[in-house]
């Protein structure tokens, strides 16, 4: 089917039942590089929510009865439509989110890859028990119904597709709520979906902060998949409890990286610096704390500082060679500025002094590396969600594992060592949903990811993640 080229300057309404539905009230977000206003977008009302949920409920029986092969074919067509629009979507993503254009292109491409991967993943019945030749218990799965996906502002295209794919391939209908800070890309995904899926199967509602509670409390919504902060995740969970709807939460992290004394410093520093400052530090699964063995601490610190100073350039996402774009919004900008002020107030030692770029109109902050602060410093215990990381010394394995596991976060962690057996042994002791040895922030659609402790509830990705969008039944079959 022919897909027209997206016009990224027009947003005629929310996507409800395969139609644009305008709203009396509109709002706009800002370009975080310039603070200039972007385009007007719809502000959904309770009536819009009811209309979208009703359309999704009506579309659910025929969509869930559609064969896996047919659903997979449409999901692949959706992936192809996004792929054909990557230049427009990536430009839009940089305008609204601020990330460098190359990273925006990579995000869109990864979203396409994930949709195609989900199109090949089928949840099949399993035999749970069999005996006497005529008795069998099947484990079967059926779709839940209407799913709401609440998408954050840091990774809006990839995380949107990471919810759309599992919901649709398992036979559910889907309503997406973008972040008010980054509504544009997700509305355009909905516009592409209009030309591919039946009415009511994929819908997008944009609005203000009150839209989330309207959706999470709605009696005819069966599941909420939320990615965002711990604080908001608690509110979502409490809201979903009112109607006992299913919920998956992928929340914030404070990922430690344990650097052993045998590493090749020059070889690992480029990846570690990238995994600390990518997207201006605004990714839940980036390295947030470096624990460096005391015998190599000074050499590692100096190498990390030198590489960052020479290679991590801050600026507008459309400028060549920029790695660190702006912090995405004024609220987060003020939070990161407050953390930098606390670092100064506590007289912590910067190995690399970052700070606000005062000459710029946008929300620009240059990276900071803090030299061996105390374990109870805010820069250690809090997730900065900005371009600042602490370096801390360690000497004993038990000690560093305990420090890495401290706190309520448990999203990701990594261990770096030439001794892979040692690295894996340490990694198995870390309390996190994803743990890497000699890498960090590797994710794949067919591998489950989620958080321990306050970093989440349930998993996304893999067959386990797909089953989170389904009800399980134990089907007992006896012969006569």
From TrEMBL:
Keywords: Oxidoreductase. Coiled coil: none annotated. GO terms for molecular function: aldehyde dehydrogenase (NAD+) activity. PROSITE patterns: ALDEHYDE_DEHYDR_GLU. Residues 27-473 form the Aldehyde dehydrogenase domain. The active site is at 250. It is an enzyme of class 1 (oxidoreductase). CDD domains: ALDH_AldA-AAD23400. InterPro entries: Ald_DH/histidinol_DH, Ald_DH_C, Ald_DH_CS_GLU, Ald_DH_N, Aldehyde_DH_dom, LUC3-like. SUPFAM superfamilies: ALDH-like. It catalyses: an aldehyde + NAD(+) + H2O = a carboxylate + NADH + 2 H(+). It comes from the Eukaryota. Its EC number is 1.2.1.3. Belongs to the aldehyde dehydrogenase family. This is aldehyde dehydrogenase (NAD(+)).
């Amino acid at each position: 089917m022919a897909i027209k080229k997206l016009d990224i300057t027009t947003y005629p309404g929310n996507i409800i039942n395969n139609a644009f539905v305008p709203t009396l009230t509109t709002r706009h977000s800002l370009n975080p590089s310039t603070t200039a206003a972007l385009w007007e977008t719809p502000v959904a009302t309770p009536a819009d929510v009811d209309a979208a949920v009703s359309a999704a409920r009506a579309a659910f029986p025929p969509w869930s009865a559609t064969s896996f092969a047919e659903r997979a074919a449409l999901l692949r067509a959706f992936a192809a439509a996004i792929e054909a629009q990557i230049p427009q979507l990536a430009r839009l993503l940089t305008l609204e989110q601020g990330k460098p254009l190359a990273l925006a292109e990579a995000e869109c491409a990864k979203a396409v890859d994930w949709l195609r991967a989900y199109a090949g993943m089928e949840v099949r019945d399993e035999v749970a028990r069999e005996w006497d030749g005529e008795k069998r218990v099947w484990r079967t799965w059926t779709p839940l119904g209407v799913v709401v996906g609440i998408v954050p502002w840091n990774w809006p295209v990839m995380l949107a597709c990471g919810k759309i794919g599992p919901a649709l391939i398992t036979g559910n209908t889907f309503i997406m709520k973008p972040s008010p800070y980054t509504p544009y890309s997700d509305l355009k995904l909905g516009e592409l979906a209009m030309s591919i899926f039946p009415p009511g199967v994929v819908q997008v509602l944009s609005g203000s902060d009150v839209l989330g509670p309207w959706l999470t409390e709605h009696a005819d919504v069966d599941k909420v998949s939320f990615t965002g902060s711990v604080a908001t995740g608690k509110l979502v969970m409490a809201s979903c409890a009112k109607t006992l709807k299913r919920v998956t939460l992928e929340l914030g992290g404070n990922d430690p990286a344990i650097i052993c004394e045998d590493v090749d410093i020059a070889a690992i520093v480029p990846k570690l610096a990238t995994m600390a400052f990518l997207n201006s530090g605004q990714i839940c699964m980036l390295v947030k704390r470096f624990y460096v063995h005391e015998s190599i601490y000074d050499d590692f610190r100096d190498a990390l500082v030198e590489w960052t100073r020479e290679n991590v350039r801050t600026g507008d996402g459309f400028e060549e060679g920029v790695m660190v774009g702006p912090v995405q919004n004024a609220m987060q900008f003020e939070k990161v500025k407050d953390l930098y002020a606390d670092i100064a107030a506590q007289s912590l030692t910067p190995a690399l002094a970052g700070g606000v770029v005062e000459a710029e109109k946008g929300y620009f902050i240059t990276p900071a590396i803090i030299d061996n602060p105390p374990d109870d410093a805010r820069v250690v215990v809090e997730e900065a969600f900005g371009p600042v990381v602490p370096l801390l010394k360690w000497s004993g394995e038990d000690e560093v594992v305990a420090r890495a596991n401290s706190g309520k976060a448990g999203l990701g962690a990594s261990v770096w060592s030439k001794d892979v057996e040692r690295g894996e042994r340490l990694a198995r002791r870390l309390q996190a949903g994803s743990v890497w040895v000699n890498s960090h922030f590797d994710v794949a659609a067919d591998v489950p990811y989620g958080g321990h402790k306050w970093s989440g509830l349930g998993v996304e990705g893999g067959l386990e993640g797909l089953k989170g969008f389904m009800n399980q039944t134990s089907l007992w079959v006896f012969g006569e």
